[in-house]
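Provenance and format

Records in this collection were gathered into a single text stream. Each protein contributes a sequence line and a token line. The two records reproduced below are adjacent in the stream.
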Amino acid sequence: MKTSHFLIALAGTGGLVACQNASSPDGGAGTSTTPERTYVMDPHSAARPEEAVIDHLDLDITVDMEGHRISGTAAYDLAPGAGSEVVFDTDGLEIEAVEDADGNALQHALGEESFLGRPLRVTLPEGTQRVVVRYATGPRAKALQWLEPAQTGGGTAPFLFTQGQAILTRTWIPVQDSPGIRFTYNATVRVPEHLMAVMSASNPQERSADGVYHFRMDQPIPGYLMALAVGDLAFKPVGPRTGVYAEPGLLDKAAYEFGNMEDMLTAAEDLYGPYRWDRYDVLVLPPSFPFGGMENPRLTFATPTILAGDRSLTSLVAHELAHSWSGNLVTNATWDDFWLNEGFTVYFEHRICEAVFGKDYADQLSLLGHQDLKATVERLRSSEHPEDTRLKLDMAGRDPDDGVTDIAYEKGCAFLTRIEQLVGRPKFDAFLRKYFDTHAFTSMTTEDFLAYLDEELLQPEQVKIDVDKWVYQAGLPDDLVVPTSDAFAKVEAELARWTSGTPAAELDTKGWTTFQWMHFLRHLPDPMTHEQLADLDGAFGFTQAGNSEVVAAWLEQCVRNDYEPAYDRLDDFLTTVGRRKFLVPLYTAMVATEKGKVMANTIYAEARPNYHSVSTHTIDDLLGWQQDVAPISL
């Protein structure tokens, strides 16, 4: 590990993870060399890679859509030099047998259960290089969401999707589940003949006749990027290297919406080097998916809430594409270093959007992110963990999902934007290109990145920036760059006219973008009267709008001001959409009043079965529910 004057010593109590140094920078599938591995502490994994670390996975599973169960084998090749024991992360898995490559039983035991699951310890006789775990998922596998036909767009076939980030892959595969441990994999997946299976790997573009699918991922990835979906799916290309998977009834709409993907991919390569994952496709999932998107290699999983019909929300695709460099190619070594994934990706997303859609678009995107950052800092200051406003987190003893806030995304982006401002864009772009090339297919700690930044850019350019304040201190530094937008200035002028008494129908809103409408809705006065809300709704039709971002922002205002004409839409929205970004503000607004608490619990009782565990984990805490039991009485 390199040293620098601003480094802070690592501390932790969990498993050590690999932090690999440079591989081959020239790119392309299968071109990376095997790098030398060093280790840092990961408090969220029981793995002991300094003793034995996985190198390759052969997964062979059967998906029982009726029984909501995955069963089969996970066969691991271990890296050379394995010691006397290998430790896997599991959570709720039924371990049926553990064997070596010849079928000989290996001694194994499950450790004590915690919020991290149960470590599976396997004794390795001398010379053992392959471990085969025969297993099945349990009834509460948090990564898996099983959907009945009525919960899908088509309404005729069941659906399954996985969500592994941050530490949920261990609930459907026994794995060394740390972002600092990378491995390649092959998979054979058996599903009902009328369904298609896709993974974060090479994928079929047509349905198999027998329901058996084979997958390869030749580039090493961490466990959280293992992903599987099974359903009534079809594929449509949108470019030479890009395409869309979706339920057949949604396929054409999705293909139109994502028609700019090839342009985005070209723009990304022009900025920071070759795309090293062969294809970039997007899978549109049912609306219960808890995130906007998940950057599973080669196949982004995406929410249908970005299908606005006018390509206005596809900056999310740019974000997930950017993860092909920041996150998938160079990965945070632990979840304490999460900002290295997301801060870089938000910055890169803005650069892709600027190249494809223009600077005005990117400026609006940046200013909305700045607003999100300020709101998050304000919320966290009065929370149980105000220290979570730091970039480098300390999540030991806590679920790392609790650290997924706008701090990693927007403060991380702001830090990089400030550096760009100090050194100039050409030099910063050259630095980032070299960073991705030098560290391709490896994992990175905050400390190693800062040392690299200091050596390669800050010292040579004689740049002064208070890195300690940006990375290790709470709150926002004084040198934060505040974005500006001429388009938003126009919105503020019209908003001032409305608050002065001009009817909403007379406002000059022609040609406004989704981002402008979001800015308008975020800055409405507080409180508002029923008449004011009715004036806005009558002029602009917010309650029945088809754009999910606009609807969510509007419904939040309606809850805060008890605008009952929007409550049927609120009920419908919350019972069909499981995206946590929308759920949290709406339920939070409801629980601010006694009437709202009753409404929130009533809606949630119906909606909860449609949500993924990632979302229910958050909303359960917010409403005072206990997992899988009745709500706490009001």
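Adjacent record:
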Amino acid sequence: MQHRKNTVFAIVSSWVGWPAVAVWLGSGGLVGLFLLPSLLFASAPAPMGQNGLVAMPSARIPAEGTLRFGLSQRHPYTTFWSGLALFSRLELGARYTATSDVSDASNALGRDTSKDKVFDAKLLLWPETQYLPAVSIGSQDFLVARMFDPEYLVASKQIGEFDLSLGYGRSGIDGGFYGLAYEPSWVDGIRLIYEYDAHDYRNDFRASRTPGGSTYAINYQWGWLGFQASYQRGGHAGINANVSVPLMQKEFIPKQQEPPPPTTQNLSVPDDIWDDPTEGRIALAAAFRAQGYSNIQIIYDGKMLDIGFSHRRISLVGRAVGRAVRTALLLAPRDLNVIRVTYFTLSDQALVTYQFDDMQQLRLFFEGERTYMELLDGLTVRYANPAHSHLLSDAGLMADEKHTPPVHSIHWTPNEESKAIALSAKGKQENDFHLFPFNLGVFFNNTGGAARYEIFSLAKYKKRLAQGVFFESSARLLWLEDISRESADSNSTLPHVRTDIDAYKRDAQAKFNSLLVNRFLHFKPRFYGRFSVGYYEEMFGGTGGQILYFSKDRPWAVDLALDWLRQRDTGSGLGFQRYQTVTAIASLHYRIPQYGLTFTLRGGRFLAKDVGLRYEFQRRFRSGIRIGAWYTMTDGRDITSPGAPGSPYRDKGIFVSVPLSSMKTSDSRETPQFAISPWTRDVGQMVESPGDLYRIVEDPLMFDRDGGHLLLGFHH
């Protein structure tokens, strides 16, 4: 018997649905959401998600980086869809479609509703000119049964207030189709549509109820919201509602709550404070801490201030360095010659060092009398040297450690680590505790039901034991779940590294998700390491490490992760099962910065002892939002459906990460992530990293949100 988990996909979100992040933007955030600029498009999404008419596609592609989500209903189809203009000439789409009233002989599942996942693509061959139309080719699978994939060629031409589309399709679009859209200039946001629907509904479920042919519709677009109502020959009405998000926009909401830059008024310090260097360091450290800096390290030798720090909140290295230098310049002795600043990650790894040798030029820059290019003459930026960072750690580690009482705070915080509500307690040296009362995990598209879910509370504790050494833990308390209803044994012939997830949910109401010690290392400039021991995640524990090296002048990096792992018991204890393995994954990362692209190739031995390659692709947009996908090919032969002996199943998925800094009224380093992935598959699986080095350094070191390199990212 075919196991019912074969088509399970999971959406793991940090809290109740990532789009709801807009609801909890902090003070002023909800109002700010409605400050998004008006987005009126020359064309609008069809009910299948991509730009088009009603059921038929057009040659139009929305502006690059336009992300849309929508829900449409055209009997018997109900579709949740998303569309993305990945590039200026490429539009991708994904749909989850439910077809009602299909309990007939053609329905192999014998249910009243059939469900299907569909992926679409459209490529603009050439754009419209004064005399020639835009021409696109595409492939879509509108039919729920997925009996064939429609392919089409379509041309669209704007003539005054009319947009004419003419195309030809096969394998589902039966021959020629056409349509006309009218956008009256005397009213904003309205679009009237007529189309000839050429879908071959005769081969679809309930064909007699969907005649095709002439269809009429009206679209209305208001800012980032859109709506379409349609009527098809035979008396069938339809609706389509959608939201558009411009990912190429740097920020969606102004930073109204960002603290003002430091000035002599808000940094009032006696002129003679540096007569005692220790007192001067204490005053400067206090000014840094008041602005959110942590792991503060200061050395003063009479002519140079040497400063090291981390920052929990500021998302850009250049911005954090800029505020620190401005603060140091205001508080430093007037005869100071050099300010040197080293930026550390929250894992105590030094990334980059800025050295300012012209104090007069720096002062004039902050007063607005020098340009950024003029500032560069007195600025040197280099990758951090571990010998220098060790000197800071040993000789300059917090001059005020003995003078300042520990800082502890307990408060309810919106948006703490991208959660709606968080109880947090923080101390100095990166020691903190967080309690997140409400978290949601959803297992999606199960043959036993449309979705499975879990609701749980999560507690996290992190303590800095020494420079670069951290104790990290997380525990969860399960409140409600229905994943364990899937109680039949998996029929996977591979070691069950992921397919027994129902047992982990059923057998443990309370459990340590992780309990480990991490040691982060810095060997040479651009060469980092990590050693870990403990319980990595819910299913595996062990010991292992990772090394990372990235090129000085080229956009590539390589890393190697090696871990000895043992499978944990499914219950609430800390015991282990018999299964153990060694995973070894080497990764090559290559970026094309001008397009925001990163390609990653991973190869090695995976959790189920299968050997192969994993291909990853991601696009980072100007807003900082990332969207990507992966596909894995190993020698592990997963033949459970939809796999087969001649075509085994391959691990694959898509992911999205959304930096909250683009959506809040203040800066933030928090980045909620979610993925649609086959968590109940065993092939091509990797253990959850206790601290992936590439993810730690990629954002702060290799990019800034303006699209430039970090070394040009200094802002005042």
